[in-house]
Amino acid sequence: MPNTTFSPTKPLNKQEELETIVSHLRQTFQFKQVRDALLYQEIIAWHAEQKGIEVTPKEIQMESDQFRCQYHLEKASETLAWLREQQTSTEDFEEGLQKQVLRRKLAEHLFSQKAEQVFAQNQLEYDRAVLYQITFSSEVLAEELLYRIQDQEISFFEVAHQFDMVEQRARRCGYVGEVSRWEMKPDLAAAAFSTSIGEIAGPVGNAQGWHLLLVERILPAELSPSLHQKLIEDLFKHWLEQEKLRWLSNFALKPENYTPAQSDS
């Protein structure tokens, strides 16, 4: 009779464990993602050292406090228990936080001013509209209900509640919220931001259906801290990817031979 109880083989030694992990990553198509993440860390560490950027114990403590708050780890004992569950030591935990802070500091050092320039050059893209939207399955239905709205037989919001294909939005009578041009599909953004406040734009057709749009008000763009951080992150990710490609193609993962690309900072 076959044995139906799982019986693990003998424990793996360190080398066998490492080989098994690498094999698993390759078989599950995660190897490149992990390899790239490690390479990004090398690139960040190299540039930070060149520019004299360091992380202080106080900054690590602040990052730790934010992490524990995010994961609701109020007591030190809860944090230690969580780390044991993740099979992570306190040293690995602190080193991981240090790398997160270093990444953020390098990104801000390289691209804080550049992000302000990008915003200034593309300010219209960051205007926000308070938007309502209805999506229909057919152009005929969209036009018919638009005519009824224009003839004041029914309101835009009643149509949204009854006919919007997006159920969650229908419950809000078509309310989308505040959206920027760059967050919208180009065809919908062009219609929404070229229509007078309170007037209905559309029907606009695309792969998702036929859309009627109503803009309640326009909020002029401003460089908020969250938008500034997003622009920094976008610029940094693009730069990091280019640096990775340079490193891989020219220097075969040998950082001692690495010459950085010229940056603005």
Describe the structure.
The protein is of the alpha+beta class and 265 residues long. 57% of the residues lie in helices and 12% in strands. It folds into two domains: 14-121 and 227-257, no CATH class; 128-219, Roll (Chitinase A, domain 3). The protein has helices spanning 14-27, 31-50, 57-70, 76-85, 90-121, 139-150, 156-163, 167-171, 186-193, 225-251, and strands spanning 128-136, 175-180, 200-206, 209-219. The relative contact order is 0.12.
Secondary structure class reads: alpha+beta
Mean pLDDT: 87
Rg result: 26 Å
State the helicity in percent bands. 55-70%
Content of β-strand: 5-15%
Uncertain runs: none
Give a brief description.
The protein has helices at 14-27, 31-50, 57-70, 76-85, 90-121, 139-150, 156-163, 167-171, 186-193, 225-251, and strands at residues 128-136, 175-180, 200-206, 209-219. It is of the alpha+beta class and 265 residues long. The chain folds into two domains: 14-121 and 227-257, no CATH class; 128-219, Roll (Chitinase A, domain 3), CATH 3.10.50.
Task: Give the secondary structure arrangement, pairings included.
Layout: H1 14-27, H2 31-50, H3 57-70, H4 76-85, H5 90-121, E1 128-136, H6 139-150, H7 156-163, H8 167-171, E2 175-180, H9 186-193, E3 200-206, E4 209-219, H10 225-251
